[in-house]
Amino acid sequence: MNEAELQKLVEEISIKAFGRPFVHQVKINRRMKTTGGRYHLDDHHLEINAHFLEAENRQYLAGIIKHELTHYHLHLLGLGYQHKDRDFKVLLKRVGGSRYAPNIGQGRRQQRKYLYQCQKCGLKYPRVRKINTRRYFCGRCGGQLRLVEHLN
Ligand SMILES: [Zn+2]
Ligand SMILES: [Zn+2]
User: Fold this and answer.
1) pLDDT band at 103; cut points 50, 70, 90
2) How far apart are CA 32 and CA 139, in angstroms?
């Protein structure tokens, strides 16, 4: 999904869920880590975290767009647009926006199945695949590694 397609999607969701047009710009942010998006008070543009445009995270995209549009519309209407405001909470719930950015980092962390630990200095090595402990040693002290945990 490119920026023009995202723009179109945001405009559609705005009309469908809020009954009001989105008349500003949406940009893709590739450096965002933990947040799903951002609404800019100064020029009213939205930013969406590029991770949520990837196919495997696409399921969260509408919820994130609705969250940012909730800030957007309330701010332009002069109503309580901040997370703590009642207007925000009520409208977010009504349109079905996500409350927090989904933790997509979680999925990546869970892929690390094996936890090795150095028997000498205690340094831990989470790994996606099994490693041959007869061939690989601790990068810090050269000690022997041992499988200490098999994460799900
Ligand atoms: Zn927010
Ligand atoms: Zn070590």
Assistant:
1) low
2) 31
Residue 68 among the catalytic residues: yes
3-class secondary structure, 103:
coil
Structure tokens at 151: 């994460």
E strands of 12-128, at which residues? Answer: 26-29, 37-39, 46-49, 114-118, 124-127
Q: Compute, in angstroms, the gap from residue 149 CA to the centroid of ligand 2.
A: 17
Per CATH, the number for 3-106 is 3.30.2010.10
Q: Report which bound ligand comes closest to the CA of 71.
A: 1
The catalytically annotated residue of 5, 12, 54, 68 is 68
Whats the size of the chain, residue-wise?
A: 152
pLDDT of residue 106: 45
pLDDT of residue 109: 47
Residue 115 in tokens: 């936890």
How close is the Cα of 56 to the center of ligand 1, in Å?
Answer: 22
Quickly tell me which residue has 């869920």 as its tokens: 17
Give the start-to-end residue ranges of the domains of the chain. Answer: 3-106, 111-150
Which ligand lies nearest the alpha carbon of 84? 1
pLDDT band for 104, please (50, 70, 90 cuts): low
